[in-house]
Amino acid sequence: MSMFFATVEELSCAVRHPWVRLGALAAAMALVSLMFVAAYQWWPVRGDYDAIRDMLAQKRAEITRARNTALVVQSYDKVAPQVETLRNKLAFDGGQAKLLEHLEALAEKNGVIVITEAYEEGKVRDGFAPLHLRLTLQGDYAALREFIAMLHGLPSWTVLQEAMLARAGRETGEIKAMLHLVTYRTAASGRKEEQT
């Protein structure tokens, strides 16, 4: 322990020496100078780094915008042909009798029997007049499924709103289907649009 105190006493004497004080001052000035030189070199590099980072963020945003634009164009190209088909289906002007004729032909094509049919005009909204059709059909499951799958092939925009299936009889294995179909059409010029 006495050696430790002796070392501390020697250092405290050495610090009082003028050359040691001058050396400590020179070392402190050299350290401050080194810090200024490092800051002088670092500051422009940091500015360049920030500029590159901002440029990279801008390029990423441009790439994202270009990718989104490409997706929109691709989606539009995919949907554009279907828009004209939808317009034609909405403009279907065959009336209820013609629509029922198409549905009966579709049922006959698929081997399905139309038991009952009822229709009701819906309220005109946003320029479209829905026609609600309630059909009761009978046939085997595959034929009914094919009938429903082929609704999109009608010249009108007819959508299956609700379907209820039940056995027609125990012996036959046939199914009775109660379908609620909605056909959307542009409102006839004679009908006024009702406000809700």
What would the keywords be for this entry?
alpha+beta; single chain; 2 domains; 4-stranded antiparallel β-sheet; Alpha-Beta Plaits; disordered C terminus; 196 residues; rod-shaped
Structural class: alpha+beta
Record field, number of beta strands: 4
Structural domain count: 2
How are the strands ordered across the major sheet? Answer: 1-2-4-3
Q: Give the SSE string.
A: HHHEEHEE
- Helix fraction by DSSP (H/I, runs of at least 4): 55-70%
At the fold tier of CATH, the topology name of the largest domain is: Alpha-Beta Plaits
Give the C-alpha Rg: 43 Å
N-end to C-end Cα span: 99 Å
Low-confidence stretches: 189-196
**Total number of helices:** 4
CATH classification, class level of the largest domain: Alpha Beta
CATH architecture term of the largest domain: 2-Layer Sandwich
Sheet having the most strands = 4 strands, antiparallel
Shape field: rod-shaped
